[in-house]
Design goal:
By secondary structure, the chain is mostly helical. It has helices at about 15-35, 40-65, 70, 90-105, 110-135, 160-180, 185-205, 220-244; strands spanning about 5, 10-15, 150, 155. Helix 2 packs antiparallel against helix 4 and helix 5 packs parallel to helix 7.
């Protein structure tokens, strides 16, 4: 684990730097695979950049609203690169609301736009997994396997490495799909969501943290099943549209 990167007198949260690198990679990939006119490509780049900015601001403000005491004594912490001070739900909501409003005003088509931003989402998924590895978050269950790692006082499944490998595979498959010129609009996005949900369904069984439901199921796995069902329905709808 490398939670803090120290370079001379300067230090920074490693996971925050990894997240920024993932955002840069995602923006680069999405602009590369974007299709349409120059105006649409530029509008897509702006959509991604400002949606990500809205997500970061929303995530920090959301965390501050939930835990105001964390910032009362040190308001400057609002500018911290520590991703542990971010709220994922507020981030997603802020990005979604801004993206929908901006995309509608720019006249961007819904499914092609989702396809275009999918490489960015895949790159972000990989960055989150690597950031968890650096910080020690999303740790695994205790294990006596040969490849177990010592973390938080126990030998554990290297769940962060499992997730990073899965995210890397999803990124490669997403790029492969985005390269196909004849793929139906929307299928790249649906493929990514299905792969991400399937990975979460499988990998959550190795995680040592997460919300457990009364029946012993993990909330993330239940959500993954629902998302996979929605992806199957979405694939059917897109296939019907393509055959008409």
């Amino acid at each position: 684990m490398l939670p803090v990167l120290q370079i001379g007198p300067f230090s920074a949260q490693t996971s925050g730097l990894i997240l920024l690198a993932g955002l840069w990679l995602g923006l680069t990939l999405s602009e590369r695979f974007a299709r349409g006119s120059q105006r649409e490509v530029e509008a897509l780049g702006n959509l991604l950049f400002y949606s990500l900015l809205a997500a970061l601001i929303g995530a920090r403000l959301g965390y501050a609203l939930r835990f105001p005491a964390a910032f009362v004594e040190s308001p400057a912490s609002l500018l911290s690169l520590n991703p542990g001070l971010l709220d994922a739900w507020f981030a997603g909501t802020a990005a979604l609301v801004f993206g929908l409003i901006y995309g509608q005003r720019q006249g961007l088509k819904f499914w092609p736009t989702l396809d275009a931003i999918t490489p960015a989402l895949a790159a972000l998924l990989l960055a989150i997994a690597l950031g968890n590895l650096a910080s020690g978050r999303a740790y695994g269950l205790p294990s006596d396997l040969l490849w177990a790692i010592e973390l938080w006082g126990a030998s554990r499944h290297p769940s962060q490495i499992y997730e990073a490998l899965a995210a890397a595979a999803i990124l490669l498959l997403t790029i492969q799909a985005a390269r196909q010129a004849d793929i139906r609009a929307g299928l790249v996005f649906v493929l990514f969501v299905a792969l991400a949900a399937g990975a979460r369904l499988f990998l959550d069984a190795f995680r040592g943290e997460g919300l457990l439901l009364p029946n012993g199921w993990r909330a993330a796995q239940v959500a993954a099943w629902l998302i996979l069902g929605a992806c199957l329905w979405g694939y059917g709808q897109l296939s019907q549209q393509g055959s008409e």
